[in-house]
Amino acid sequence: MKILVPVKRVADAAQPLRIAADGRSIDGDSVVPIINPFDAIALEEAVRLREKGADVSEIVVVSIGPATAEKELRGALAVGADRALLLETKKAVDPWNVSAVLQAIIASESPDLVIMGKQAVDDDSNQVGQFLAARLNWPQATFASNVEVAEGSLSVRRETDRGIESTRLPLPAIVTCDLRLNEPRYAPLPAILKAKRKPLEVRPLAECGVTIEPRVEVVALEPVDTSRSCVMVESIDELVKQLKQTA
Amino acid sequence: MLLGPKLDADIYSSIRDLARKFANEVIRPRAEELDRDELFPIEIFTQMAELGLFGVTVPDELGGSGLDCLAYAIVMEELSRGYASVADQCGLVELIGTLLTKHGTPDQQQAYLPEILGFKKKVAYGITEAEGGSDVAGIRSTAARTESGWLLNGSKLWINNAPVADIGFVLARTDPDQGHRGMSIFIVDLHAKGVSRSPKEHKMGQRSSQVGALFFDDVVIPENALLGELDRGFYIMMGVLEKGRLGIGSLSVGIAQAGLEAALEYAKVRKQFGKPLAENQGLQWMLADMAKEITAARALVQQAALKLDHGAPATAASSMAKCFASDTAVAQTANAVQIFGGSGYIRGFEVERLYRDAKITQIYEGTNQIQRTIIARDLLKNGIR
Asked: What's the pLDDT tens digit per position in B359-375?
């Protein structure tokens, strides 16, 4: 079984971000980049499937992003991926186009399983897995909290608002991961060194044969004021008035 | 000549990311408890062993991580930013790992390195005695020759890990008539007959480190327990001290950095006279000086690491790094306490612990007075280089 893990380089949401002078993008200087945490969970699951004895022939990580995303891909190789592919672009690519690019990659890589985060924590779209399943006409299990492989099929438990849903999917299939699927490991120091010798291919995004036609345009970004201050009130009426004004 | 790192820059940055993440998520949240209750966090150490944080510079064919001294310095700083006692365990294992790598027989390496780097066995490094700490020539412990080995007698004071250790690396006199040329290092089973230990000492700082005395009363030492050449123990020991000083320099930078981070955050949040502390120029200058000193300390430490990695003379450089960085740790954690005001003097506030943890860095691994003596000796002998 060959596993493809798409990963995205995102800004660490725990660090303060600034909006750039154009008013519609994030100032790159303020960004502390990390691998999208949900994608790290997907990668961890792929490595665990192999460790648990599933017949995994290869784990390939793919990313669409700037040249600097090589660092996150090296990190993924240190965790246990075998090979990495970076489709280099300086522009942000929206979910519909990401799914088109991944479709083209899947045509040449022919994975049996595509496992990815349910969403990226920067734009929170939660669309790529679903778009990709539709384009490929593959079965999908989103919001996975447990994944088991048995005889060419997958058993996936999904977290839904109504509770846990157990599903079975034939391969090839798409799985998107929720927070509680696993806790990603730390890559040991020797693995960081070895990752340097694993194959990592960088290709310009333009050469992957997909015409990027943006469907989403960011018009403006505004900071949310999260500062809170304490106001002392004298009466219930004043409290209600304050709540109406500020809450 | 300017010396550069031997590995690609992104390797060091990945190593820093790992050590920082581990320190933030696993070590730092437990530091207050480990300090308060003087606990030995075996579960943290076991996890560190799995991550290759023990034996950073030990070659990978011997079970280490096969990295260089710069990587080791980075790991030590980041771990220490979490909690200095945890970093100090990393430094101790690194020293013993280096001793075995450089001087161990293949049999000794196979017998001890996997268990020590895997943290299955805990080690102690026994040099200091009542009459000889910085003055190693004052050591009184003896190993008298027998037909099948040696008989060890004497005591060692203030030994890190003594209350919990399984294996001791002990310096003792093998030729009482010779000074430095009559000492040898023995690998001692600390569960053997004749070995006893004092209860652990209750210390001012780095309280999770288990420190105490080891006593040897006619302990039978087999032939194969001699590490390196007979009577060369003093020189063997001195040969790893540069790496030891680099480690303590890095650890000191980590303590100081944790103090700066805490002080910076507090100065932005704490309001007095209707504005954050950080809006007072006097405090801004304090923060600026703290950052400046710590950056200088880190630069000295990394320069010493690069010298060691390039095989350049590093005696003065590692002593300068250790001395400057530990003085910086004490001075800048004191400033961090000052910025916190009364809160900084209260148990439970991180800077209060950092100030206590910093003090020993001026004392252990050679006091800062000894470091200055070493620097001066090198200066007078070799000139400025």
From this structure: 999 999 999 999 999 99
Q: Is the pLDDT of residue B213 over 80?
A: yes
Give the per-residue pLDDT at B133: 72
Q: Which residues of A touch B66 (CB under 8 A)?
A: 190, 193
The C-alpha of A190 sits at a distance from chain B's nearest C-alpha, in angstroms, of: 5
Q: How many CB atoms lie within 10 A of CB A59?
A: 26
Nearest to A71 among B10, B65, B71 (CB): B10
In this prediction, residue B290 carries a pLDDT of 98
**Nearest CA among B174, B112, B180, B120 for reference residue B144:** B174
Transcribe A64-130 into DSSP letters. Answer: EE-GGGHHHHHHHHHHT-SEEEEEE-SS---HHHHHHHHHHHHHHH--SEEEEESS-TTT----HHH
ipTM (interface predicted TM): 0.86
Find the catalytic residue in B129, B242, B293, B365: B365
Mean pLDDT over B278-295 rounds to 97
- C-alpha dihedral sign at A142, A148, A149, A155: negative
- Residue ranges and CATH numbers for the domains of chain B are 9-117 (1.10.540.10), 123-233 (2.40.110.10), 240-382 (1.20.140.10)
Output phi, psi for A19, to 5 deg: -85, 135
* Three-class DSSP labels, B136-175: HHHCCCEEEECCCEEEEEEEEEEEECCCCCCEEEEEEECC
- Rounded distance, CA B12 to CA A171, Å? 40
Task: Write the pLDDT tens digit of every residue in B19-37.
Answer: 999 999 999 999 999 999 9
Q: Which domain holds residue A209?
A: 2-246
Chain A environment of B56 (Cβ under 8 Å): 189
Check which CATH number belongs to the domain holding A82 and give it: 3.40.50.620
Residue A13, pLDDT above cutoff 90: no
A-chain CB neighbours of B22 within 8 Å are: 186
Percentage of chain B modeled with pLDDT above 90: 93
Please answer yes or no on whether B51 and A196 come within 8 Å at the CB atom: no
CB spacing of A189 vs B52 below 8 angstroms: yes
List of chain A residues whose C-beta atoms are within 8 Å of the C-beta of residue B21: 186
A75 CA to chain B: closest CA distance, Å? 7
Active site residue B94: no
Q: In chain A, how many domains are there?
A: 1
B2: confidence class by pLDDT, cuts 50, 70, 90: confident
Chosen from B12, B16, B26, B51 to mutate, greatest number of chain A CBs within 10 A: B51
A198-212 average pLDDT score: 94
Residue in chain A closest to B15 (alpha carbons) equals A189
Q: What is the dihedral of CA B344, B347, B350, B352, to 10 degrees?
A: 50
